[in-house]
Amino acid sequence: MSFKDAIWWIFKAVVAQRTRSALSILGIAIGIFSVVILNSLGEGVRQFVLKEFTQFGTRIIAITPGKTETFGLGSLLATKRPLSLADAQDLKRLAFVEAVIPVTFGSGQVKSGRLSRYTNIAGVAAGMDKAWAMTLASGSFLPDDNWKNPRPYVVLGHKIKHELFAQGKAEGEWLHVGGRRFRIIGVTAPKGQFLGLDLDDIIFIPAQLGLQLFNRNSLMEVDIFYREGTSSKAISQQVHRRLMARHGNEDFTIMTQDDMLAVLDRILLILKYAAGGLGVISLLVGCVGIITILFITVRERTQEIGLLRALGMSHQTLWWLFVSESALLSLLGGSCGILAGGFVVVVVGFWVPLEWQWFEIGIALSIAVIIGVLAGLWPATQAAKLNPVLALRQNP
Amino acid sequence: MITLTQICKTYAMGGETIKALDHVDLNIHKGDYISVMGTSGSGKSTLLNVIGLLDRPDSGQYFLQQKNVASLDDDTQAQIRRETIGFVFQTFHLIPRLTAFENIELPLILDKIPATERRSKVIKALKQMGLERYQSHRPNEMSGGQMQRVAIARAIVNEPNILLCDEPTGNLDSHSSADVIAVLEALNQQGITLLVVTHDAKLGKRATRSLWMDDGQILKDETQSGALISAHP
Amino acid sequence: MRTLDLIRFSFNTLLRHRLRTFLVAFSVAIGVTSVCLLTALGEGARRYVVTEFSSLGSHLLIVMSGRTETTGGMPPIYGTTPRDLTVEDSSRLHRVAGIKNIAPVIAGTSLIENSSSSISRSREVIVLGSTPAIFPIRGLTLGQGRQLPAMANTKATPLAVLGSKLKHELFGSQAAVGQWIRVDGRKFRVEGVLAERGQSLGLDLRDMVIIPVQSASQLFNTQALFRILIELDQYASEDKIKLDIIKLISEHHQGHNDITILSQDSILSSLNEVLSLLTVSVGMISAISLLVAGVLIMNISLITVSQHREEIGLLKALGASSNTIMALFVSQALWVAAMGAMFGVFLAYFILYVAGLLFPDFPIQAPIWAAPAAVSVAMSCGLIFSWWPSKQAALLAPVIALRG
């Protein structure tokens, strides 16, 4: 049997049993559809989260005081060996360093006129707008003052400005923060939340004034932005050496954006593949469906198979015909699933983070075909094993 | 008992319309033994199906026991079939996976008769057909004549008034045929109305009344006064 | 047809087609098993968190300084404010009725050294400055020695309780109780060592040291408390006590309400909610496989109908109503679905049983609703997907059906 004839034969077999072929295809299609959708969702979420983290650029390393294994807590705890403003200032002089932002966080009451709010307070420095990719709605950001002795200027987050000044102009007004007067010089554009911190419900003041306000000796974090042309590893080694020289021992923790992203990405990838894996269960059920239908087909076509064998068709050809039929059903099912999935990704993708992934979808399609071939093996072997004489005699 | 007036039925077959029944009028009385004869395609099977409520006429009226049944809905017709009509087919139509007993039991199951009552009725029908020994045989373990007797037992187990037979001897050898005909005629003797479709003229002549059909019309309707009663013609 | 006869009849038909019945039931079983197992994972995570929380003692309030007024965002966990919570604030709270235990906490990191050993071993760990009340509140038990004495409530006494891991790092297998350690250079005597268990919600208490709150205040040169942990009486009203605490603290903070109170119950219930939601959605996603099984049921039903046309015709000729025919085929599908579902539930619980033996620590267990939900989804799929094929069977004209 020539290849072309075989294709035609299989095609006719599939079309002759339209309804059952369609339903077999539908089963596989639902499976592939869910694999595609869940995988796209996983990838969408992954990219969304990574984008959240890389919105401030990727050439960042963060230094927190204290050397403890307890992730992320170091910056919140009291310490005898603080990370000081002087440390941050010193790091500015390292090669490739573009900007150093000292950070201290807290919360407190802010007042303007008769209105007051409790809000987040961030002690930072000039350059922070660029570093954190913040844009201003109006006014200007903190000026590049001497860190030890900065002017009492404040920049308001979008939301806090609205609550205190409504539509009015805020620049030039005074803001009382913890018994001290700050002059408002700018208002940020809406930014949204980052890791649960509302970046609109916040005010930015110079780091030194923040430390005084909260009566702290240590910065919570120092963010270093470095230029292109070096690696995160090289720069963190530099920082490490410099701080060791200043402190005498390792009482700080350096975290590069790369490290953090790598950890995060590993978690997100696991989540993504787990989601895709959930879809594979449906694919498995679809596979059982194809096996079942092919068995029934073999049984129904027993006489026909007997005739074909009597007419001189070989075991192998017969076997291949059934396996190919199964593979074709799977392939069609997979394609339908991918088309439907693609449609949903395009339509729903406007509201939900869905990311189309050619590579994984190629894999999904291959899985579908492999499953089809595997599903065909058992019934095909049964068909090929049939004794032509007995097969011809048997009633369907 | 049965009155057909101006019954018409056409089939579409390969683009052609075939008049299977063409304004047929027919009266059947209780206890009649009627044979319907004709060439294949003459409409005799369609007539049987219409009388048996298996098929709906396109037009005309059908009164069964003074009731207009042609226009009843499917389920009511099914109920009438269940209660008053028995069928015997050329190909027996026994369910292969069921034993003789279970095949005969089917109509009783459909009629929601409790199991104990079913049992006695089936046994009675088996006895009547002389099949007691075969009650747990499956169709493939019986001869054609035995299978047809099982089918007849099934047809009469819920005591119908009318027995409709479509070529009941068509798949049987002459010995079995005689056997089956004897059984059917004995039933007729007990008062059941018997309608036999056949193209076997010899069999047809045994009936008290013979209808000859062609092209969907009844050409001849003869009543034989001196019909033979003997079992072996 | 009587119901019992119907069930028997359809079951017999299934037995005729053992292989396909088995395969369809198997596909349903895969779906049901995966629903049960995956929800069991979610439920296990939920139970794990709940047990972790309840081991901290129920009815716990966490007071921290700082507050933001917009809702939705995270509470200000960094706890730094212009006006700190102090040890005095904490002792004032004893006046609030319905409070069982209060533990102020100063948290910091320090370098700990074993000063009595000739080999100097040092580690940087978290130091918790607190009062003896922290032991009952966090459900801490001692492996060796004693907890902090009552005097630690008010005085800076150089006494320390070590986490079990920290004890090993500093002293190895030697006895630690009664030995001296240095915390950022200051000498403290080891009063006790915590029992081995001590991982609680991210805070690895095995690698910490607990000292009196006043000592920590001196050590870190701060009055600012990191948290105040409050254990309530069993029948106390959480909401009322929250209001009382806010009122009392405000009085001493010039009328400013600048604290945030989290209740363990509310944290627990929101975590519970999130994890339950996760469990339900995972269950729903795995239920898609039951949909695929449903499509298979439909396919098989159609094939069965087409293979049994003659029989359908016969039954109709014998007087079966269309409802009977329909019921016959639907009940066949329901049989298969039920068998598959049953097998699936059995398989799932077997796997869970084995998993329970292998990982006794993780409380993996299918939620109560999982099996009934999976079974009813499976049965509904059987019903819905066999409906149309069965309808086709019921609508078959008897004359045509009899021809085979």
Give the gist of this structure:
The complex is a heterotrimer of chains A (396), B (233) and C (404). Chain A has 396 residues and is an alpha+beta fold.
Describe this structure in words.
The complex is a heterotrimer of chains A (396), B (233) and C (404). Chain A has 396 residues and is of the alpha+beta class. Chain A has helices at residues 3-16, 18-54, 85-91, 128-131, 158-165, 207-214, 232-247, 257-300, 302-310, 315-348, 358-385, 388-393; strands spanning 60-65, 78-79, 97-112, 115-124, 136-139, 153-156, 174-177, 180-188, 193-194, 197-198, 202-206, 221-226, 252-256. In chain A, the strands form two sheets. Chain A has a six-stranded mixed barrel with strand order 3-4-11-6-8-7. In chain A, strands 9-10 form a two-stranded antiparallel sheet. The mean pLDDT of chain A is 85. Chain B has seven helices and ten strands. In chain B, helix 3 packs across helix 4 and helix 4 packs across helix 5 (144-156). The two termini of chain B are 29 Å apart. A six-stranded mixed barrel of chain C has the order 2-3-10-5-7-6. Chain C has a two-stranded antiparallel ribbon with strand order 8-9. Chains in contact: A-C, B-C. Strand 2 (78-79) of chain A pairs parallel with strand 2 (99-114) of chain C.
Quaternary structure type: heterotrimer
Q: Structural class from helices and strands of chain A?
A: alpha+beta
**Spatial order of strands in the largest sheet of chain A:** 3-4-11-6-8-7
What is the residue-averaged pLDDT of chain A? Answer: 85
Strand content of chain A: 15-25%
Most extensive chain-chain interface: A-C, 69 and 67 residues
Main sheet makeup of chain A: 6 strands, mixed, barrel
Shape of chain A: elongated
Helical content class of chain A: 40-55%
Percent of residues in helices of chain B: 25-40%
Beta-sheet strand percentage of chain B? Answer: 25-35%
Radius of gyration of chain B: 17 Å
Total of DSSP H or I helical runs spanning 4+ residues of chain A: 12
Unreliable residue stretches of chain A: none
Count of alpha/pi helices of chain B: 7
Order of helices and strands of chain A: HHEEHEEHEEHEEEEEHEHEHHHHH
How far from one another are the termini of chain B?
29 Å
Q: What is the string of helix and strand elements of chain B?
A: EEEHEEHEHHHEHEHEE
Q: Main beta sheet of chain B: strand number and arrangement?
A: 6 strands, mixed
